[in-house]
Amino acid sequence: MAPGHRPYVFDYDEDDPVYVSDDEGDLLDYDSNTPSPELITIEDDDEDAATMDRQTQRSTSHLNIQFPETGEDTLSLPGGAKITTGTTLELKDRSRQKGDALHSGDFLRVQHIIRNLETDEVRLRGFRLRRTKYLGQMLDWKLNELVLVLHVDENESGSPFVNGMVDICPTEVLGVRDCVMTNKPYPSLSFRDPIVPRPNLMRSNEEVREWLFHHGRLVCRVVNILFLYRNGKAYGGEVRHLRSNEVDAEHAMPPSLLQGGASDSSIEIDDDEDERDIVIVSKCGKRLPIKARAWPTKSMRYTFGDCFCGAGGASQGAIQAGMTVCWGLDFDDAAIAAYSQNHLGALPFCGNAHDFPPKGATLEELRVDVLHLSPPCCYWSPAHTHNGRNDQANYEAIYTVGPILKKVQPRVATLEQTFGLATHEQHKKNFLLLMNDIGKAGYDLRYKIVNMCEFGLPQQRKRLLIIAAKRGTPLPPFPKPTHGGPGSGLKPIVSVADALEPLERLGNRAYRDEFHQPNHSKLLNKTPYDPRTSLVKGCITTSGGENYHYSGLRKYTPRELGLFQTFPINYQFFGPQSEATKQIGNAFPPVMAEALYRSVAKTLEAFDHRLINAEDEIHDLDATLQEKEVSLPRSSSNLQSSGAPRSPYQYLVRDDSRSSSGASKTGTSSSIWDRRTEVEPTRPDFKRERASASLPFRATRDRRRVQADAELAHANGESIVLD
């Protein structure tokens, strides 16, 4: 050891480092315990900040370096330090932070040194890194732990690791730092890992902590990708651990160790040169063999669990996607009664998620491949404008997600919430904490706000969706929109008339349904609208929302609302009309759930059949399989004719809508936040229309008389031609 330095060693059984002096050891807390996030804010009117805006910008040319620009191998800083590819630089701190805490600027992992041969200007292009404490509650605040932050445009093709690089002016560089990029779990390779020399004159804990903050090793294990929309805001993103091909080669952990997710009991890894010799060492020192994954030899159905199941919208979508629903849990007696009526093969549990697992059930019985969690969203909704009696319970329910994930350990988990959780300033802290809980349970995640009318829902229903995959399992992509406006190349937007067609086909039999009794509805006097060219006027809520029948004469019945939520027409609800409406408004629409779980099931099946790897970057599974030259059957095993060879797949089928280049022929949908987006259904071009009693009425006629005539015509099986 060099003279003038003293050793700094750490106890791995504790999260905090221990400084060992000659005769005593003091427990030091080097992790931030500040009660509120230290978010970086830059004042727009500050001269230095304006300079930084000019000198720090997203790279728009990426790797396309052309004359008069050229790439260089090294660059010398004024202090004598040399910059090369892979060097990590600390940038100047342009934030406005309190002076009573340790602060720093961001960091840059250099990938390219670019010089303009005409102006001799130099730019440093690379990845922006940021301390975890500057990202709010998304991650635990650990000293010298960094996050790779990538901002990419929503519709930008290519890898985020190319599109997300930024350009930095050398004048913004403060100095060179030692930084490790790794996929190994915390605290491996951190400043705690080696014996850290420090200046001999430092005595107090504060001095040691400050020295480590400014000079100790930095470690990056996580990437946060934000997808920016046209308005510059991020309504989608990913938070995940770095993959082995994204880290320093000498600090990579083989993907084989991540299969099935990290084990809480493992605290040490023997990383020998030969991957076959790698073992996990438990706390008691016992060497645990790594179990090889059993690859399936025949098609199988994935199992599904539904937490906060309500009446069962998510479970219905999972069934339609080909999964086996095993159980549902909800605290509402009426909702769980409706659930049990529709999902006879699933175990219904009525109980509080805080008491999970439910009484009488073992965790082994609750193990499933895919778990859905939809905590009550009323509190987080933009429509929540006054306090409610269940606000506290609804607020706390979201914090059961992490503990339940740790207990059930599904391969993939999904969440559906109101978009206000992610977009409203007063709720963003809770959204970050939710992502933190999911990450600490051992999952990587991606999230996105979708408009469900782009998937066949006849209403503008914007919801936050989250897909989380256990580390060692590929992260499934979000499904592509299937419906769009004119010129999108997608299926037409589903109209009110389209959604009500199953009810129209029943004729008089529809009135036998206790949840479709329009004659008992209170008469209204609203402006009628054409159901063939309209979506439902508002989002379906627990009270039905501000929606009314297209005739303008009454509200929609629960059965009609159920069809607008894409429940099958024979789906059973429980309780009085108001209770049924509540169950419908709370539901995750089955058509959206089906699209989501088809994507999840196809990804799992492709992985289980070794068609894709755990660390593949998948944003479009069909395109990925086509790039790998994987040949898929035209139909799954359960749809093939008896004479055809049986497919080995339950979910994977060939996508014939794709061209030979792998691009979809159906096109893409516009951003849901673009006001110019055309999402209303278009009127069918009929030369001669035969109108039924359910079509819009002329405003000059007496509404009550028209309604009476219409109901009589329905009862007689007749139709009315409107002039």
From TrEMBL:
One GO term describing the cellular component: nucleus
Region (Disordered): 629-723
GO biological process: methylation; negative regulation of gene expression via chromosomal CpG island methylation
Bias (Low complexity) ranges: 632-642, 659-671
Keywords: Methyltransferase, S-adenosyl-L-methionine, Transferase
Protein family: Belongs to the class I-like SAM-binding methyltransferase superfamily. C5-methyltransferase family.
GO MF annotations, alphabetized: DNA (cytosine-5-)-methyltransferase activity; DNA binding
Name under which the protein is recorded: DNA (cytosine-5-)-methyltransferase
Entry EC no(s): 2.1.1.37
Principal EC category: transferase
Comp. bias (Basic and acidic residues): 673-691
Active site: 377
